[in-house]
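Notebook entry, structure prediction.
Reason for the run: the old model in the group folder had no record of what sequence produced it. Starting over properly, with the input documented here first.
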Amino acid sequence: MCIRQTFGNMLIDQLKSVFSQFAHRSEFESFKELASGHINDTYLIKTSEKPFFVLQRINHGVFKNVPGLINNKVSVSLHIQKKMGHLSQEELSRRAISFVPTNDGAYYFKDEDGNFWNVMVFIAESFTHLTVQDEEIAYEGGKLFGEFLNLASDFDASLLMDVIPNFHNMAFRYSQFEDSLKLASEERLERAKEYIQIVQDSKEEMHILQKLKDSGEIKLRVTHNDTKISNALFDKNNKGMCVIDTDTVMPGIVHYDFGDAIRTICNTAAEDESNLDLVSFNLDYYKAYVKGFLEEMEGDLSPIELKYLPLGAKTMIFIMALRFLTDFLSNDIYYKTAYPEHNLDRSKNQFKLIQSLTEQFDEM
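New structure, fully documented this time:
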């Protein structure tokens, strides 16, 4: 008990000290750890007066260039705020992330242990959804992520760094897969052989978007790259408010964000559900998301971007199936697993989702 209390006091002292480095003019009162993320440490800082703040320690083990990452997300947020300049200050603070500079004018503080910290204004009376339970949430999610892409569409994506190089690069993911085949045990190769064959048979189709991107036929944009529904804030009436968690903002193509949102919104089961009978592609949620997305984006999409949106959904599901399979064949070196076939089950799940999607592809 004494050890826990001592650690708690040390953490409070650390958070107070770091928080004091930022130009917020507020007095620290208490904190609450926000445990929704898997990479960074994030704390709600309650102050003597509102607004409250979110203090975040960026994991510099995962993200190798934290100053570049912070520059990406601050630059894009300032751009979006400028585009929303017609809103009142109160409304703007609820519709876009506001970063607080340090007392020296930078947007991050580096402590003596080499940790990087940043501060955002907390958006009060907001809610998140871990999963989509009805078409209204899918529709509002589509509008919100579409609006984010639309507002950032005139930002020069070449000014942003690649936070995670080759993150959605299909050629790179296939190269990792082929390396894993050379190193995998005979037992794992046998257990995964059906899905290895699917990957090999799908190679040409799954490189279509990559080739269009590399050739410049599909333009490079500012993309969010983590468009799961839990990265959208909603108000009490389930209306979309703000896109959050912009650590992975970097150059990409619209199909990355569209496809990843569809992947997480339209699966009727959890990502690691091993009973494949429960896994299917929810076409109603897809239609609702597309409706909201195109209300915000249709005028900004080229004909070729619009044409390949459904393939974007299929491709982003496939790339996750491929990554899970590759990790299984590599003896589970990347994703945390709870049992020996966890990554294989995740991969099977995504391949079943692709099968269900494919059966409805014409309607999509």
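Summary: The domain at 135-359 is CATH 3.90.1200.10 (Aminoglycoside 3'-phosphotransferase; Chain: A, domain 2).
The old model has been moved to the deprecated folder.
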